[in-house]
Amino acid sequence: xxxxxxxxxxxxxxxxxxxxxxxxxxxxxxxxxxxxxxxxxxxxxxxxxxxxxxxxxxxxxxxxxxxxxxxxxxxxxxxxxxxxxxxxxxxxxxxxxxxxxxxxxxxxxxxxxxxxxxxxxxxxxxxxxxxxxxxxxxxxxxxxxxxxxxxxxxxxxxxxxxxxxxxxxxxxxxxxxxxxxxxxxxxxxxxxxxxxxxxxxxxxxxxxxxxxxxxxxxxxxxxxxxxxxxxxxxxxxxxxxxxxxxxxxxxxxxxxxxxxxxxxxxxxxxxxxxxxxxxxxxxxxxxxxxxxxxxxxxxxxxxxxxxxxxxxxxxxxxxxxxxxxxxxxxxxxxxxxxxxxxxxxxxxxxxxxxxxxxxxxxxxxxxxxxxxxxxxxxxxxxxxxxxxxxxxxxxxxxxxxxxxxxxxxxxxxxxxxxxxxxxxxxxxxxxxxxxxxxxxxxxxxxxxxxxxxxxxxxxxxxxxxxxxxxxxxxxxxxxxxxxxx
Length: 485
Hints:
Elements: H1 2-21, E1 33-38, H2 39-56, E2 65-70, E3 76-90, E4 95-99, E5 104-124, E6 127-150, E7 156-175, H3 179-182, H4 186-218, E8 222-224, E9 229-232, E10 240-242, E11 245-250, E12 253-256, E13 280-285, H5 286-298, E14 303-307, H6 308-311, H7 321-324, H8 331-334, E15 340-346, E16 351-355, E17 358-372, E18 378-397, E19 400-417, H9 425-449, E20 451-452, E21 459-469, E22 472-481
Antiparallel strand pairs: 1-11, 1-13, 2-3, 3-5, 4-5, 5-6, 6-7, 8-9, 9-12, 10-11, 13-22, 14-15, 15-17, 16-17, 17-18, 18-19, 19-20, 21-22
């Protein structure tokens, strides 16, 4: 019987926990990702958990109940109740609340009543008989307090703080065999069975929490994103709970898989306000994006080689010394009508910054030009440095992440030259126009189409909104859970 109660409590809690755990810890560091579960989300999780329990009752199995009952002058009777199944359940919706005193949740079920059937066997001296029974258990009350914490490796932990349970009454009807002999002594069976059920409810609640704790400890706190990046998501501190919400802070740092090198900057603190109109909110600081940029940069991925066939195949312009010579007069004289190649690379780590309603990106790069000789060698020509700044907007529409960007500034300077000095003004203007009308236009087309929001295995996000704040972006959303077998 107690199996039902423990599964009820734990699964309601699990349905809430898995919304943000789908999740080596350096204590005291600032979290780069924060998750806030509001009371609206907690109550929705409770409602989904109650529905799940109600639909799952037919699959619940119960252990046999055995014991010995002293029925006065007749002595003791050994009995076993087996094959116990539920035929009806009156399950009032539990109350679940944030419980700051224990940094966890307090769950209460009041007035649960269940009707069951099964088989009975008794042994009395040389008499060994069996039959069927009907049992009704009335007014079961369970109050449980669960504490959330953090283990040394940054996993979320759960533990039972307290549990109180009582069973109001039990009614049993025996059928078959010599049940008429034992029915008058039902009061003896009732007292014993009531005590057995009540005695086992809380130990089994604690047992399920132990299993849940083991499950949480087995979850990864580091995930490989691709062949270059890994994302670390351990908790950075203890969960924070008040009467209206739960706040979890995660490390949220990307690393280069090969080097796992720390970036030369730290996550800065940020405060994300609770959005009670939504079930949960997630805040991602600019540190998370910049750690990804640093990991890619340290892996040497912010560079590209460009030649005539890769870039200019769709236009009637070729990448050669004649074309580029329009901006560098001496070039075609020194290397007449020779194909060229360009090597683009970032001079510094690209830096993202979040400002109210705007995302900023600074990219400092360089391009080194080569002339391709007939024998296959490359002759260095010059190196240009460029500094560019972009700004953009991000928003959610139709449950898709969308946005737009614009180029705010682009400057080009001559860093080194093997062909003599030359002015870069005209080339800068051409490149500025080319970036705006080609690169930015194509990026905006893709951003306008948007990207679908992440989906969970048994839930989807709805009514989502996104805001860009100082130092972080925040998404608030509701969720719809789809219960399946």
